Amino acid sequence: MRNPEITPVEHPLAGIRREIDAIDDQLLALLNRRAACAQQVAEIKTAAGEVECFHRPEREAEVLRRMAERNPGPLGRDVVVRFFRELMSECLALEKPLAVAFLGPEGTFTQQAAFKHFGHAIAASPLPSIDEIFRSVEGGACQYGVVPVENSTEGVITHTLDSFMRSGLLITGEVSLRIHHNLMGQCEDLAGIREVFSHQQSLAQCRGWLDRQLPGVRRTAVSSNAEAARLAAETPGCAAIAGEVAAELYGLGILARNIEDEPDNTTRFLVIGRNPVNRTGQDKTSLLLTTRNDPGALYGVLEPFARHGISMSKIESRPSRRGAWDYVFFVDVEGHRDDPTLAGALAELERKTTLLKILGSYPKAVA
User: Main localization of the protein (predicted)?
Assistant: First the structure.
């Protein structure tokens, strides 16, 4: 018989769990309150005739940076940025999801970059080529497009640079994505694999791992990593090298993670749209320019940046296709075109070039 004077001791987790439940209730209320505020913003913009301008890249970048800077932990910066990006994506989608074109098929790293930049609450549209992404945004079928522009081990993607030479679209953002290759399939272990599918670049980037872990196994290059995952899902005894998005999409198990030979392999993607982006204080500007084929002409073009103290992060040349040995230069500099210092340098630059095209000023990648 229990002694009525003895009070049962509460389990130490019970109080913590009650506190977690109370916090969850507060979070739920605050999340919906924030969503309601976002709806009010959309209503005000609609009344002002700004139907096409619900999404503001500069505002989104400012929110993400502020949350990352104010984060005291223990959650990491990347976790906080990812959470608030998804929250803003869902709030924006309450009115209408953003239509975003990416280099397909579904399951590619370009789709992964689109999700990283815009969140998952978008109407993602896979297209077969970079040219078609540009045309889709130019024609208004999609509000934005995401295209790869350079890889840390493979260099620039020339199709993207060439498309900017022909297009009037603007760069509205950038995404930096660490490229992690995973081996995936329906096999229970590596011993059951007789063939590996992947894009030829991915096979090359994982050559060392494949030589060590799967010597003698056939390697077959296909059009994309997503296509490799699809084939692996349909073909017994076969595996694919692709990103996590492809594994989720095609229901494959990941047999080995991060098998790339270069752990710092990173691809930079550009976001393209029709409208300019306002300054945030942490911006980049991309330029396309041509010079006369005279001695010292390129130095004369770059000198104003140095004199105005403007940092240049990239310069790349492409044939102009207007004549033999005639080149177009693609340049990335720090700052926004509306910054007084950069505006002054650009004014000087215009007098020294035969063509100066500002491809866009946009926020630096947040994470």
Answer: cytoplasm
